[in-house]
Amino acid sequence: MLVSLGYSRTEELTDVLINEILRGADGTSIKCGVIGEIGCSWPLTESEKKVLQATAQAQAQLGCPVIIHPGRNPSAPFQIIRILQEAGADISKTVMSHLDRTILDKKELLEFAQLGCYLEYDLFGTEVLNYQFNPDIDMPDDNKRIRRVRLLVEEGYEERILVAHDIHTKHRLMKYGGHGYSHILTNIVPKMLLRGITEKALDKILIENPKRWLTFK
Predict the structure, then answer these.
(1) 92 or 168, which is more confident?
(2) Across all residues in the chain, what is the average pLDDT?
């Protein structure tokens, strides 16, 4: 979007991001609290690389939280983190979202976890037979998401895990028959406890990790 508005140089993009956090977005006094969700394709376009580089530079100056929407390929999160690192980003303040539909292999997931960003499983409640955006992917159900979160906890990454719903359509709301925004607390947390994820780990995932990520350095 930034590039489509006519900002083509990384420095210009950086200035826009910084201005929207320090002064306000789109000519208003409403200040942004995070940079993102930065949408990325697979393969990355040159414009997307510039936006990532600008994001890294803005984050380096402000110490602000960043969240990334990776392309639908298991290599995408690795490439994005590399670009951010090279441009000076603080990976410890960066969330990689949609891992549930992106990195399906356990070995790859644990390899990615070592890079130090937040690991977000944010499609809880999304259980579809055919994933229209990438038919090659068998979308995991909530039980598999819970098993992946448990794996990450068991491997020592409980301080880097975030969870969410990614509710973006009306049919996901309770009014229209969906799980609604209470799904994680009402349904997922009890199942996580049943599957051996401790209350201490859940407090980190649900309370401490989001607070740490959203706090400016």
Answers:
(1) 92
(2) 95
